[in-house]
Automatic annotation (TrEMBL):
UniProt entry keywords in alphabetical sequence: Carbohydrate metabolism, Lyase, Metal-binding, Zinc
Gene3D superfamilies xrefs: Class II aldolase/adducin N-terminal domain (3.40.225.10)
PANTHER family xrefs: 3-OXO-TETRONATE 4-PHOSPHATE DECARBOXYLASE-RELATED, FUCULOSE PHOSPHATE ALDOLASE
Protein family (similarity comment): Belongs to the aldolase class II family. AraD/FucA subfamily.
EC number: 4.1.1.104
NCBIfam families: OxoTetrPhDc, PRK08130.1
A GO MF label: aldehyde-lyase activity
Name this protein carries in UniProt: 3-oxo-tetronate 4-phosphate decarboxylase
Catalytic activity: 3-dehydro-4-O-phospho-L-erythronate + H(+) = dihydroxyacetone phosphate + CO2; 3-dehydro-4-O-phospho-D-erythronate + H(+) = dihydroxyacetone phosphate + CO2
Length: 211
């Protein structure tokens, strides 16, 4: 896509996510990597529901602001993901209710904090590691993200929310929506006995639909 088309797509999906209640206030950010390596990212202190194409920030692969409004203060961890995932062309980071609730729980195993409940969860998200808490804007978060991003399409920031990458913005949005719905299932099921996908079923899905 051309840059103006990507800017329009960011506006479109920002409004969709805001309308669905997955984004609120000025929380969350979206980005897309262009073929020349530059990044289009939503501006700081902006609402995803009320963006215009000209507002969208453009930064270099090193994070230098090139054009548009000032970029999100969290753009640095988008850059960290792109550096580790050459196949990724877009990132969605939101503070949706059920995913954030999941990030606030204590987990014995932080390498994967979602139980394997559905096929589409495995296909679109894969394993979901939980990263330690960092205050918003703390650049040390980028190092933690780099350690995880290469092997995971999605990760969860403790007491914060998910980072989800995709081959396109639509792919990343669909994966994010699947993550939020799976987190919702976790809380709906609660402590009831649950039928998890077997290791064999997960292996079969991973072979057929690699992340």
């Amino acid at each position: 896509m051309k840059e103006d088309e990507l800017r329009a797509e960011i506006v479109k999906f920002g409004a969709l996510l805001y309308g669905r209640g997955l984004a609120h206030g000025s929380a969350g950010n979206l980005s897309v990597r262009q073929e020349d390596g530059t990044i289009l990212v939503t501006p700081t202190n902006s609402s995803l529901g009320f963006l215009s194409p000209g507002q969208i920030s453009k930064v270099s692969a090193e994070g230098i602001h090139l054009v548009g409004d000032p970029p999100s203060k969290e753009a640095f961890f988008h850059l960290a993901v792109y550096q580790e995932r050459p196949e990724a062309s877009a990132i969605v980071h939101l503070h949706s209710t059920h995913a954030v609730a999941l990030s606030c729980l204590c987990h014995e195993d932080t390498s994967d904090v979602l139980p394997p409940l559905t096929a589409y969860q495995i296909m679109r998200i894969g394993r979901l590691p939980l990263l330690p808490y960092f205050r918003p804007g703390d650049r040390k978060l980028a190092d933690a993200v780099r350690q995880i991003a290469g092997g995971h399409k999605a990760m969860l920031l403790a007491n914060h929310g998910p980072i989800v990458s995709g081959k396109s913005l639509q792919d990343a949005v669909h994966a994010y929506e699947e993550l939020e719905e799976t987190a919702k299932l976790v809380f709906l099921i609660g402590d009831r006995p649950v039928s998890r996908l077997t290791c064999e079923a997960i292996a079969d899905l991973n072979e057929a639909f690699p992340n």
